[in-house]
Design goal:
By secondary structure, this protein is mostly helical. It has one domain (4-129): Four Helix Bundle (Hemerythrin (Met), subunit A) (Up-down Bundle), CATH 1.20.120. The protein has helices at residues 4-24, 32-53, 64-73, 80-83, 89-92, 109-129.
């Protein structure tokens, strides 16, 4: 059963992380690890909003590939651009707690902000269309 209330709450939380990304985007003082973490969090929360709206009890996980797979199992069409965001999973734990820069490719911050923003907006439209 659709849980629109949870979907809207998760969307608000995703929007908070997106705002943090936008604010951090131009700062050289913010590491790519921290930037990637907030990008991962925004994507995770947006996907969980989508799942809640689709009536899926999502697991407590940071694994974006797992969340995307659940959406696909429910017949939710996912644009390829959003599927590629699963690489951010490592920023939730592995990279967040590791100092090695070799794990982090240089992030194209403006491009990532745009991709995350498009996902959040896509889910917002999806949830809003069925209000």
């Amino acid at each position: 059963m659709c849980d629109r209330k949870t979907a809207l709450m998760m969307l608000e939380l995703a929007s908070d992380d997106l705002t943090v990304l936008e604010e951090m985007s131009g700062s050289s003082r913010i590491s790519d690890r921290a930037f990637g973490f907030h990008a991962q969090q925004a994507v995770e929360k947006a996907l969980k909003a989508w799942l809640a709206f689709a009536g899926v009890d999502y697991p407590k996980t940071h694994d974006l590939a797992e969340l995307l797979a659940l959406l696909l199992e429910r017949g939710q069409p996912i644009p390829d651009a959003f599927r590629r965001l699963d690489y951010l999973t490592d920023f939730a734990v592995l990279i967040r707690y590791t100092i090695s820069e070799t794990l982090v490719d240089k992030i194209d911050r403006p491009a990532l902000v745009l991709e995350v923003s498009e996902l959040v907006e896509h889910v917002r439209r999806h949830v809003g269309e069925s209000a």
